[in-house]
Write a structure and sequence with these properties.
The structure holds 2 protein chains of 2 kinds. By secondary structure, chain A is an alpha/beta fold. Among the domains of chain A are: 107-178 and 394-456, Rossmann fold (3-Layer(aba) Sandwich), CATH 3.40.50.740; 181-373, Dimethylsulfoxide Reductase, domain 2; 594-730, Beta Barrel (Barwin-like endoglucanases), CATH 2.40.40.20. Helix content of chain A is 28%, strand content 18%. Chain B is mainly α. Helix content of chain B is 40%, strand content 1%. Chain B contains 9 helices and 1 strand. Chain B has helices at 2-33, 54-57, 86-89, 104-111, 119-129, 150-159, 178-181, 198-207, 214-217; one strand at residues 135-137. In chain B, helix 4 (104-111) crosses helix 5 (119-129). The termini of chain B are far apart. The chains are: A alpha/beta, B mainly alpha. Chains A and B meet through strand 1 of A and helix 4 and strand 1 of B. Strand 1 (33-35) of chain A pairs antiparallel with strand 1 of chain B, so a sheet runs across the interface.
């Protein structure tokens, strides 16, 4: 019997539908099974959740979190309501910590390879430890050892600092789009080594220069909470003005956005200072200090009537005077000026930020509600030493550029191969080192270049602590505890390994850390040592008769803090203003079709260290609603003139390279700029991959011009000029916006967005 | 002959197809309202990875082998069940939603020493040595849209001393469990005895004047 085509289709259709329908009716086999645990703590009740407090390490902010744990599995992350930094709030990045824990691409055993190429093969921890000990023990010039980590705080900073000192090597902290200028300006203006606490909550007039503080700047969860109070709290509603060269999420939330030309922020702030002093609105002491007694005449170059000022800022004379008056107006006190992000990422970055933070001195808001509060030293003496504090300060781009080639390199938790522009010499340093050790939970560009990869626990499985920076204006410490057992059998703790390494190298590390009496000290022992000191002082949020009681109390609340232990009342003497015209230089092609490139940290994947988490890849950007890619933001009018439509692929070329990304057109992009998020375009060579990060978008950081701030050597990452060219290709953008037609909710509330003049 | 004739009449009347349909309808109807007939593996006790005899652990009666002869211990004496409380192993029952399956570790508390020569106990010891979970076949399962909390029921039946409408004393501590699970202590292989359908739940809630709002269980 022959089968006709029609019969074949009918039967195959019926059988396919049948297979689906009957499979759907059946109860899945695993639901008809119940697994007995192998062993179980006696107090564990099945089906009942336990919430454990710990610290989130997805962000440098390090929020306090509580994790819901059911039968030994972490299920949900929320903000810790007790923790002074975030006070119960958290963000999408901390929420996604669970995906890091259960990620299918986690490195599950130590991996080793000879040389800098070839395949990795698994080895045992014992062999891995022996290899590290050998490489460090045989190193003749100990200064040729380099440890690269993220900026470290708390006891991990103490441990790393002591290790480097005992062994005799170097440490460098890596931060993508580092805030080196910010730290220096805080030191210059306020005389503070630690970042201060900005009281956004109680401010009545907040002017922010380039600081995307609701999304990614320094301590966004804390600031977002404060911002809610500023806008909707009791009392007079505060006003927020955002001076920004990009229409960021923070600019979109502001009462007013002042689009400023890149690097014009400093000149604008200086011009405001000029007007405030000229019109007699500033605090007289501050005026004397800042101008060296010369008054506004010293700042004549920055008079808003000056054509250069309007040219450099792109803001009109009247607007500058208005802003200055509003900032110093008695009715608007307390007022607060903050700055950072792209404002400090120019060749005149430090000049910009010093001018911006000096505004605060003129309204005398230091240590006043709604102003700037200084943070005290960490509560434990050992953690407050300068060496330990320095572990938290990122190295400037100039340091990376002039890096001394190390022979043994140890990298932990950061990805400088991806995050530095090509000129940093770091890649060659990695490739030429004799032995490269990477502590990492995931394969990334840097660990792919290593000889030995050691899989680390995620922060949900490990001990740790944090001294928040910026702190909550009083002494506080967060405690990180393992909320679940390590998910994989062969991952390890960086702290424990450093202690072991110290012991096997016989460099007296345990002695330096007062862990002598202990045969096999762990990082938890070190934390307990510190906690013991706090317990004996008998002050702050947790007091107890016994140390065990204290330790349990601190674990339960996620940390310890003492609201009475405040920072300095008065800062050091501020340096007088730098009154010479700043050296603004933007590097790259000039002429037709060239724009200032403003890179920005993604609201979800940050600098790319979270690009491997699909929840965050799929979280829409707050301004463009874009997901899963890199895009180029362009002004509607400019794009119209150039015949560029949304989704057109653009070649973005700087002096350092070219990337290709689709255009996203919107009217609130200043016509002299284009903006691109950072964090995508990951590429791990070799036998491993990052399944959710690879092949998505481009690495914006790779095309940044290697220009630096003249004073600090910080990377001027907003000082790159690029040319734009259409490739002729076009794609549909993956985004939320536009899929649902916009509707008018309340008549008469349409917000018109006008182009800047 | 008469019987064959009777079958012939029925088959003749209904036809083979009708007969099959009748059985199907009967089977589905019985399964719908109570538990299914025990045929083709329906309704019976599922086969477990370790043949755990509740009779030995929870029962108190004399133990017998497959042929009904008394089991003898090393001293050739008849053996009785051990008579453990249900909560000795199902420790979670008074605390949370699920009664809980004991961890392998708990079995090993005794079976480190006892019965290590028995093949079923050997499986358990192997699981413990390899740190492997034992995956049991579920006997009692409620649909996902029902929330059944053991703790509330245990508390109600043991602490409040409720009486049945007939005046009969409600099951006391030891046999609270058997209210729904039947005489598990007498089962070599555990099987479901009550229908545990919604009608069953609601009837019992009515008998004990327990709330019958939808949201009592569906939430």
């Amino acid at each position: 019997m022959g089968i006709t085509r029609r019969q074949f289709l009918r039967w195959s259709g019926v059988s396919a539908v049948g297979a689906v329908v009957f499979n759907g009716c059946r109860i899945p086999e695993e639901e008809l099974q119940v697994e007995s645990p192998v062993d179980m703590p006696e107090d564990l009740v099945t089906g009942t959740d336990n919430w454990y407090a710990t610290i989130c390490h997805q962000d440098p902010e390090a929020c306090g979190i509580i994790v819901r744990v059911v039968e030994g599995r972490a299920k949900k992350i929320e903000g810790n309501p007790d923790y002074p930094i975030n006070q119960g709030k958290h963000n999408a990045r901390s929420e996604a910590g669970l995906q890091a824990l259960y990620h299918p691409d986690r490195i599950q055993q130590p991996l080793f390879r000879e040389g800098s190429s070839g395949e990795f093969s698994p080895i045992s921890w014992a062999d891995a430890r022996r290899k590290i000990t050998d490489s460090l023990g045989n190193l003749s010039d100990k200064s040729k050892f380099l440890l690269v980590t993220q900026p470290l705080r708390g006891h991990l900073a103490l441990l790393a600092s002591e290790f480097v000192q005992a062994y005799g090597g170097k440490h460098m902290a890596f931060e993508t789009l580092e805030q080196v200028t910010l730290r220096q300006s805080v030191k210059d203006v306020f005389g503070q080594d630690r970042l201060p606490d900005f009281d956004i909550e109680n401010s009545k007039y907040l002017i922010s220069f380039g600081a995307d503080f609701l999304s990614t700047w320094i301590s966004p969860v804390k600031y977002s909470r404060g911002y809610g109070e500023l806008r909707q709290g009791p009392g007079k509603r505060g006003v927020h003005v955002q001076v920004d060269s990009r229409f960021s999420m923070t600019a979109a939330s502001a009462d007013e956005w002042v689009p400023v030309k890149p690097s014009g922020e400093g000149v604008l702030a200086m011009s405001m200072i000029y007007v405030i002093i000229r019109d007699g609105l500033g605090d007289s002491d501050a005026v004397n200090v800042l101008t060296g007694g010369d008054g506004y005449k010293a700042l004549e170059a920055f008079s808003p009537g000056n054509h250069d000022v309007v040219e450099a800022t792109g803001v009109s004379e009247e607007r500058i005077v208005e802003l200055a008056h509003a900032f110093a107006d008695q009715n608007n006190q307390p007022s607060l000026a903050i700055g950072g992000g792209s404002a400090g990422a120019h060749t005149s970055g430090l000049f910009n930020l010093r001018a911006i933070y000096s505004l605060n001195l003129l309204v005398n808001n230091v240590n006043r509600d709604g102003g700037v509060f200084f943070n005290p030293a960490p509560p434990i003496e050992k953690l407050a030493s300068q060496d330990v504090m320095n572990m938290g300060v990122p190295a400037s781009f100039r340091d990376w550029k002039d890096i001394d080639r190390p022979q043994v390199l140890m990298v932990r938790g950061v990805n400088p191969v991806y995050g530095l522009p090509a000129d940093a010499n770091f890649v060659t340093a990695v490739e030429n080192a004799d032995f490269v050790i990477a502590f990492s939970s995931f394969m990334d560009e840097t660990s792919a270049k290593a000889n030995l990869i050691l899989p680390e626990h995620t922060y949900l499985e490990d001990w740790g602590d944090d001294v928040p920076d910026p702190g909550p204006r009083y002494q506080s410490m967060g405690l990180q505890q393992p909320v679940v057992r390590p998910f994989h059998a062969e991952t390890g703790s960086f702290g424990d390994e450093m202690l072991l390494l110290g012991a096997s190298l016989n460099i007296g590390l345990a002695g330096r850390l007062d862990l002598d009496g202990n045969d096999n000290p762990t990082f938890q022992d070190l934390l307990k040592k510190g906690a013991e000191k706090l317990w004996m002082e008998n002050r702050g949020s947790v007091k107890a008769g016994t140390f065990d009681g204290f330790w349990n109390g601190v674990l339960q609340r996620g940390g310890w803090w003492d609201i009475e232990a405040k920072g300095d009342a008065i800062g050091g003497d501020p340096r007088p203003l730098d009154i010479s015209w700043p050296n603004i230089s933007i590097e790259g092609p000039t002429g037709e079709d060239t724009y200032n490139l403003i890179p920005f940290l993604s609201n979800s994947i940050a600098d790319g260290n979270l690009a491997h988490l699909p929840w965050l890849q799929a979280a829409p950007d707050p301004v463009t609603t874009m997901v899963w890619r890199t895009w180029v933001e362009m002004n509607t009018k400019t794009a119209g003139e150039k015949g560029i439509r949304e989704g057109d692929m653009l070649e973005v070329t700087s002096s350092n390279g070219t990337v290709i990304a689709p255009a996203y057109i919107h009217p609130a992009v200043p016509p002299w700029t284009v903006s691109m998020p950072v964090g995508q375009g990951h590429k791990v060579s070799g036998q491993f991959s990052e399944r959710y990060a690879e092949g998505i978008g481009v690495n914006t950081l790779s095309i940044l011009a290697p220009v630096v701030d003249g004073d600090t050597g910080a990377l001027a990452w907003a000082a790159t000029r690029v040319s734009i060219k259409k490739t002729g290709e076009h794609i549909d953008l993956s985004r939320f916006e536009g899929n649902v037609p916009a509707i008018e909710l309340e008549p008469g509330k349409i917000i018109q967005i006008a182009l800047p003049d | 002959m008469k019987r064959i004739a009777a079958i012939g009449v029925i088959v003749g009347g209904l036809g083979v197809g009708g007969l099959v349909t009748l059985f199907l309808v009967l089977f589905v109807a019985r399964a719908w309202w109570t538990t299914p007939f025990e045929v083709f593996g329906f309704g019976g006790a599922p086969e477990q990875p370790v043949a755990f005899p509740h009779t030995v652990h929870a029962g108190v009666d004399m133990l017998v082998d497959e042929d009904g002869n008394p089991k003898l211990d090393g001293n050739n004496e008849e053996m009785n069940g051990f008579g453990l409380e249900c909560t000795f192993c199902h420790r979670n029952v008074g605390k949370g939603e699920t009664a809980g399956i004991p961890p392998v570790e708990q079995c090993i508390f005794c079976h480190k020493v006892i019965g290590t020569d028995l093949p079923e106990v050997a499986k358990l010891v192997a699981a413990w040595d390899n740190k492997e979970a034992v995956v049991w076949e579920r006997v009692h399962r409620l649909p996902d849209h029902v929330r059944f909390v053991h703790e509330a029921h245990i508390r109600f039946f043991t602490k409040t001393g409720n009486l049945l409408p007939s005046g009969e004393q409600a099951a006391m501590a030891g046999n609270v469990c058997s209210t729904c699970h039947g005489d598990v202590a007498g089962m070599a292989e555990v099987k479901q005895v009550r229908s545990l359908k919604m009608g069953d739940c609601v009837d019992c809630h009515r008998d004990y004047s327990a709330p019958t709002d939808c949201t009592t269980c569906h939430y």
